[in-house]
Write a structure and sequence with these properties.
alpha/beta; 11 helices; TIM Barrel; 280 residues; eight-stranded mixed beta sheet; 14% strand
Length: 280
Amino acid sequence: MRLPDWIGATRVAHQHNTKRLLRKHGLLTVCEDARCPNKSMCFTKPTATFMILGQSCTRTCGFCSVKGTVPGPVNRSEPEQIACAAEEMRLAYIVITSVTRDDLPDGGASHFARTIVTLRKRLPQAKVEVLTPDFKGNDDAVKVVVDACPDVFNHNMETVRRLYPIVRPHADYLRSLSILRKAKDFSSEIHTKSGFMLGLGESMHEVHRLLKDLRKVGCDFITIGQYLRPTKNNLPVVKYIKPAVFDTLKVTGIQMGFRHVSSGPLVRSSMNADELYEYI
């Protein structure tokens, strides 16, 4: 399927300084590994979503281009490397995500916590958002991350319940919802966030059901974007959703009680995360 006129990633020059700093500190970003269409725009700000715990994922999701291979050992110096880079980039808002590490007893939760704490020491005024895997539903792992006091706890639903066996075969819809609910249970002060994609074959009825389920677990922020096939090995796009549908879903989400809804073809989970938080 050819890209419609309303989808076209903005290509911006002058990204090289951000790339240079990332390579200098030996860091990975989900922007690059997941082939985000907004990478060039975000890298000019400069901002980036740091990806911790390596470059290899223990799961193979149909929508994702991150490598599904046996992961290596955890880099214990990574929290300090990220803090150094964030300080050099003068970041006021930092997003930390990771590959899924089902091979680790806590799924990498303690590494998330160490990264948050290290960032707080170097950049006490900066806001920190985490985008976590589901930790296989481990309550203790969620608590470890929440106890490190991120400003925003994000876990993406990615798609509607019916499509989980195709899109997220190793995940579970109800388990992902429970991660967001547990984060709120452990801290009433924390903002929770989730995101999902359209264009994978979902119906609008299923999308509305997903939105209702997210509100039931107290999710504050929501991002909705168009699925774009990152490689030929990933799931094909079933349908390109028109911008008007995204606009309607934004209104629907606000009416349902979400504190903020970012909805559009090129919206991604961490895109303009600082602006979303500032808005709130």
